[in-house]
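Section 3.1: Structural characterization of target chains.
Under the original work plan, the team committed to producing a structural model for every single-chain target entering the pipeline before any wet-lab resources were allocated. The record below documents one such target. The sequence was received from the expression subgroup and is listed exactly as submitted; it comprises 163 residues.
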Amino acid sequence: MFAKTNKWLETEQFVYEEINEIKYPTKETIIMIHDYLIETFIVEGESAHRGIMSDAALSFHGIQAYQDEKENKKEDIILKGALIFNQFLQAGHPFVDGNKRTGFITLWLFLTLNGFRLKVSSWAYKKHLKQINKWAMETDSDNITEIVHWIKQNVIWINDMKK
């Protein structure tokens, strides 16, 4: 899944909105990602739905406003990425199916738009899927700290790569 999706992501032009120098994927972009994932990775005999349960989780307005008084350093991008990913895991579940996959790719896109590279191969994604499933099932706990830690372990700031 990851290699094929990565190739698709490299060929697409994604629309984003920039607020306080931070780039956020638009709701339409996230829906496009979701539709691609559902159409491409549906297994024969499996049913998956393209429908939206709630588009509130797709707007990120609360996340955009979160920490507006901060200096928008790279640590803020990682925290905002964790908040966005968590929207798909437990907070919002905007789609009927495919929330974890869509959340993961949305996190990847958000980080990429803001100067980071998520260094997770398809093997590593499978390895971390158990943790991602755990975050998705724990609706009564705050996973943000764990997600931030996970992102920090699996991300490279592109400026660091140029040195």
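The radius of gyration is 15 Å.
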